[in-house]
UniProtKB/TrEMBL annotation, chain A:
SMART domains: AAA. The lineage of its organism: Bacteria, Pseudomonadati, Pseudomonadota, Alphaproteobacteria, Rhodobacterales. Belongs to the ABC transporter superfamily. Residues 10-237 form the ABC transporter domain. It holds the Pfam family ABC_tran. Keywords: ATP-binding, Nucleotide-binding, Transport. This is NitT/TauT family transport system ATP-binding protein. It comes from Sulfitobacter mediterraneus.
Automatic annotation (TrEMBL), chain B:
One of its GO terms (cellular component) is plasma membrane. One of its GO terms (biological process) is transmembrane transport. The keyword Membrane applies. The keyword Nucleotidyltransferase does not apply. The chain crosses the membrane at residues 6-28, 89-115, 217-241, 253-276. InterPro entries: MetI-like, MetI-like_sf. It holds the Pfam family BPD_transp_1. This is ABC transporter permease. It comes from Sulfitobacter mediterraneus. Residues 84-277 form the ABC transmembrane type-1 domain.
Amino acid sequence: MTEKQSVISARNLDLTFQTNDGPVHALKDVNLEIKDGDFVSFIGPSGCGKTTFLRVMADLEQPTGGTVTVNGVSPEEARRQRAYGYVFQAAGLYPWRTIGGNIRLPLEIMGVPKSEQAERVNRVLELVELAGFEKKFPWQLSGGMQQRASIARALSFDADILLMDEPFGALDEIVRDHLNEQLLHLWERTGKTIAFVTHSIPEAVYLSTKIVVMSPRPGRITDVIDSPLPKDRPLDIRDTPEFLEVAHRVREGLRAGHQDD
Amino acid sequence: MRRSVVPVLSVVGFLLVMWYAAAVWLNAPWAYDKATRSGEVLTTSTLVADTWSQEKPKLPAPHQVGKEIWKTTVEKKITSKRSLIYHSWVTLSATLLGFVMGTGLGILLAVGIVYNRTMDMSVMPWVIASQTIPILAIAPMIIVVLNAVGISGLLPKAMISMYLSFFPVVVGMVKGLRSPDQMQLDQMRTWFASKSQTFWKLRLPASMPYLFTSLKIGMAASLVGAIVGELPTGAVAGLGARLLAGSYYGQTIQIWSALLMAAALAASLVGIIGIIQRVTLKRMGMA
């Protein structure tokens, strides 16, 4: 097998926000390589810049130093090519559109032909196990189903990269477990590269092939852990010694970040 | 719907009782005057009967106004100069034209304010200032100026309606077009949506509930504008003209019937917008 291609690459990345209370170093000297097909989690306390980093990849924030490339081009060019799907913390479905209509929205914007739209909507609804809900309005669905619909929307235009910003943060533990399992299946079936922001250690360890531990003031990477867990992960893998060992290392990394204060 | 019938009828009943009582109280001095001059002695029942049937009462009783409205709507031909329906139509046409112009102007200004920083800084203060000028002061000037350049009839009145009705639309639409949050706008950005796509697919649909609320206020304001526009010009037709003529000749019954007609007109117009609102928002899944 040949070496996997680099999809997202950050070099000496700096981002400083100018606020009324003075400059805030959201990211400082961040270096990272995300390879094709990786599932990378970013974990850290609030203010560590994990969401900011994701937003830089999506061209929603501009770095003040260093470089990022997405698919070998600048984030802006990648955004122009619609190279990634972005899932926000809230589902953000339009209340005046049905689930199908919401998933069709990016397709309409990108000018996908009508006939193809329907076919794609069906396919992604199937992927997130929401087949049959196409004609329902968002308020008729539970929070977990809404978030699944928003993932379907991010998948609908077939970008190879999926950027997810704490997509399950507002959901309860049981729903979250279920969605985590589904997300792994989906990742396996589609082979997408996923960057996933979370503040839950078990979630990060369960999902990822690579865990990036970050710490605040200034936001920086303190540890990058390549997960030794197998690709096939039933939920009870979380009770195995291997899993607990990785979780322990993540916890250590988070603690080390805090001691600098 | 059914549940609101009883409360509404009770309120109407209460108002009618108060109205009749007020009619007795306000019209009694004149009844006593007449009685003293003719040397009659008024019993309670004759006093009440007199106060409810005077020809030019200070406050006409409800049934007098009702009879007048019946006479001037059902029993008169619509083309007659004395038909209240004819006068209502004159006012209604100006109201509707002004409402359409005001809504259009309001939406255009709101889009400008939301999309253009210069307009955001400069237009809003003027919009607010425009509403601090009493309409009664500016209405005659608008009509005189437009007359001088040869515009008369429907348009000057509609301009005054527009002047009153664009304001709620601007305020409501600016708020509505700005109602999508940062996350929804970021989402559009991630899809590389153009400005016009963001407008048509996000901002405009999101503003619909705000628009309808504004339209209701704008419609009522528009009717007021059309009536005010008829007052200072010695207009010969329209509800405003009826009000003015009634007050010249002390025809209180005529004034009240025109007033009630205007109120009914306003209620139906606002009601129609309410129905359109409910149907539209229901179809959009927002109600």
